[in-house]
Amino acid sequence: MIILRTSPTSPYGRKARIAAAVLGLEDQIKVDWADTRASEGSLYEQNPLAKVPTLLLENGESVYDSRVALELLDALAGGGKIIPTGEARISALTKQAMADGITDAAIQAQIETRNHPEEHWNTVWIERQQGKVNRTLKAFNDQPLPTPAQTNGIPDCAQIALACSLGYLDLRANGDWRRENPELICWHDAFVEQVPAYNETLAPEMLEGS
Ligand SMILES: N[C@@H](CCC(=O)N[C@@H](CS)C(=O)NCC(=O)O)C(=O)O
């Protein structure tokens, strides 16, 4: 059995949880919640970066980060399912990096606003991060990814990463992305409808709010 260390709200961990579900690997993976705010504990021994997701393999090896976890899960399921092979591979991985980059920048902005009183916010830094988020959202809005139904019913790594980024923006940034990205709303809604694991992995806060 593979152990997936993650947290209920982690957008990167959610990528691995959705990947396991769409690949039919849930029986082979046990989720073990990790507290990423702790300053010591097992996660530190399993991953010196103390980040989630971290996969613990039966041979004792730890695997991270989320992009490598998706590669491993895809290989376990036979390969070529959520990570395209051939020419499409690099494009899918680049789009996954773009989507993860939205989450990375949104988290950077969150850290600044969460950790300091408003009068001490570094607004230049926040605007810089927000610019990354807005430009990348616009790129996905202008050239939408295919929906999972258009890719044999299984979302690829880019689609999974983008859905998790949008879910993170809904959770932590008031869903502001919805104001200027109508095509992305359509894409998101199709993903939610076509991939039940999306709603099954909603953060507890979102469930309480619904
Ligand atoms: N690039 C990494 C990012 C992982 C990451 O930053 N995870 C966050 C949770 S959303 C974390 O573990 N934060 C704890 C920390 O940085 O100490 C991935 O794709 O897995």
UniProtKB/TrEMBL annotation:
Record bears the keyword RNA-binding: no
Domain of life: Bacteria
PROSITE patterns the record matches: GST_NTER
Domain GST N-terminal residue range list: 1-81
Keyword annotations from UniProtKB, A to Z: Transferase
Keyword flag Transferase: yes
SUPFAM superfamilies: Thioredoxin-like
InterPro entries in alphabetical order: Glutathione_S-Trfase_N, Thioredoxin-like_sf
GO molecular function: transferase activity
Transmembrane intervals: none
Protein name: Glutathione S-transferase
